[in-house]
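Human: We require from you a standard protein entry with sequence in single-letter code and fold as tokens, and nothing else.

Assistant:
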Amino acid sequence: MNGQKTLSVLILEDDSTDAAIVTRLLARSCGQYRVHAVRSLAEAKQTIGECHYDVVISDLNLPDSVGLETVHCVRQVIPTAAIIVLSGSSDESNYVSALRAGADGFICKHDVDQRLLHRCIEQSMHRIQQQLKILELVREVDKQQSELARHAKELENKNASLRRLCESSQSFVNHVSHEFRTPLCVVKQYANLMADGSAGAVTEQQEYFLRVIEDRIDGLNNIVDDMLDVSRHEAGLLGASRKCCVIADVFDREIPLLRQRANLRKIEIVCDDYHGLPEIFCDQEKLGRSLTNLVTNAIKFSKAGSQIVVSVACCLIEQELRVSVRDFGAGIDPEECEKIFNRFRQATTSIQSGEKGFGLGLSITRELVELNLGDLSLTSVVGEGSTFSFSVPLNDIRSLVTRYLDRLLRLQTSYDKVVTVFEIAASNALTPQSLSDAQALLNFVLHARDLLVPVGSGRWILVLNTHAEGAREFCARLAKQTEETNRNRPVGKLPGFQLENRGTYDVDVLREDVQLCMPSSRDVSPRNHSEILINV
């Protein structure tokens, strides 16, 4: 206090002599006090209702209240004042009982002097102020918790609404695509039958027209595929079923179909020899879609009589194959080169065929390439043509993990940059079919941003883009899906999976030490592990 503030003191004492002594001691102390004395609890209640008091000094034996009940009553009437019990007893147990009853201080009448009384008031004031601060903090915490609970509930409701909206939009796109595909397939089949002469002889010109119809239907089907992929990507459902393969398998399937489309426009597709190249690791369907979209785009912007050159280069330093699609069309202005990868954006060149799209092809192609852990680039010269090229990683685990982690670092926010690494071994003897089915099952239960790499027959390295709790959820999901698959599998049960948790890491930490993801040199078969996370 130090003379800075005058405190209002209420003395609650039925003995006028004791009240006078306390009043005199307060007047002589170094503090500044304004004192008022009453003789009963009833008077005190009336006085407190008329005036604010900082301190109440109370006897426990009053005409209308006896014992610690007096403290309870005073505290209820004036909860913010410091209460000091003035007692004729020096028993320590009375002191403890008074504090438990809500008093802030205790003074024995026989020991009281001005210094002791002043110090007791200071300490009691400090204690009640601290208690009031704590109560205020508790009220604020309660308020914040209520606000957080309310916001959490609102967020939960909004998330549920978004999930329903996402499911609804996904269902709508799936339904619309199905409604598109059914008549398109029927039209294409009839056009094909007519072109083949199954419905009677056709002239060369009529056959050409029918082939154009088939080609336009293929173009519409590509647009439907792009719409589906955009919808799945926005819903976080566009995943990748990556595996070891050779690029020739994809090119042998796609290039002949693309040549048919090009021939209708009198465009020649020249393709380098792509056989005998090293194994790659990718989702073959998405690799095929990437190639198809780029060649189809080149066809749209090429003149009749020109060429499109498809080439594949092996880059051992980068551990990748580089696929390039070059056209000799009008080219693209430099300021347009990056914009054309934006959704619903098409190049504004002077040479375009009558075929129009939605501007989804290049945008979704970039997504497909990146899902295959590659990159898509463009070089173009106005008046000379354009070259789109994309990379496909070779089947090298260190390079694959590095590419995967680099992709996470590019795409994600700080709270997403954590991964959990597993080494997986099949627990039973494997046939080629059961091995293929086991990997298909693992890919099925993975999320879009996870990585599964085979490192031997019946062995995999799995990198989950999740924390430890999410990894446990994955294990439960895998166990449940394995059980459901085995229940309906006509050729016997799939092999069980032995999962060894190699740890949870920040992505940037793991990127600096990729060796943590490398397969162990020891045998990881179930007999070396006491804990079987999944065993069927």
Summary: The radius of gyration is 41 Å. The CA atoms of residues 293 and 382 lie 21 Å apart. Residues 397-528 form a domain with the Alpha-Beta Plaits fold (CATH 3.30.70.270).
